[in-house]
């Protein structure tokens, strides 16, 4: 179910996505409103779940996590018990930044951020020791061309 957001809400969301550390006064000035209505709208969007957790975006390269792998997984297992174990395993691995279940020939795709190929192999060995997987293909990203967390609101 879509939440109801109007043009002012969208402007506020755009500002928050650009820099959530802005003050209410800064946001209000940029969206053409005053502080109290902006605060009330932000509070309402938090309550309805439009706005989730406020976090910080880190630079993986500066933290020594220079290798990004996209991991394609095919499985012959589709039972609930296997899926639960697989999801539990992925959630326990901090190097898995994203995981998606797909339609088509590939069942899952993971985005895995690690220091290097050896660290990826450690991840891979741990993964296959915990859950049975039919086929794994790892693709190393050579260059991140575009990265954003901002949704087109």
From TrEMBL:
What cellular component GO annotations does this protein have? Answer: cytosol
Q: Which GO terms describe its biological process?
A: regulation of DNA-templated transcription; response to amino acid
Kindly give the InterPro entries that the UniProt entry links to this protein.
ArsR-like_HTH, AsnC-type_HTH_dom, Dimeric_a/b-barrel, Tscrpt_reg_AsnC-like, Tscrpt_reg_AsnC/Lrp_C, Tscrpt_reg_HTH_AsnC-type_CS, WH-like_DNA-bd_sf, WH_DNA-bd_sf
State the UniProt keywords alphabetically: DNA-binding, Transcription, Transcription regulation
Entry's Gene Ontology molecular function annotations: sequence-specific DNA binding
Per UniProt, residues of the HTH asnC-type domain are 5-66
Q: A Pfam family matched by this chain, by name?
A: HTH_AsnC-type
Note the PANTHER family from the entry: DNA-BINDING TRANSCRIPTIONAL ACTIVATOR DECR, LEUCINE-RESPONSIVE REGULATORY PROTEIN
- State the protein's name: Lrp/AsnC family transcriptional regulator
Q: What is the lineage of its organism?
A: Bacteria, Pseudomonadati, Pseudomonadota, Alphaproteobacteria, Rhodobacterales
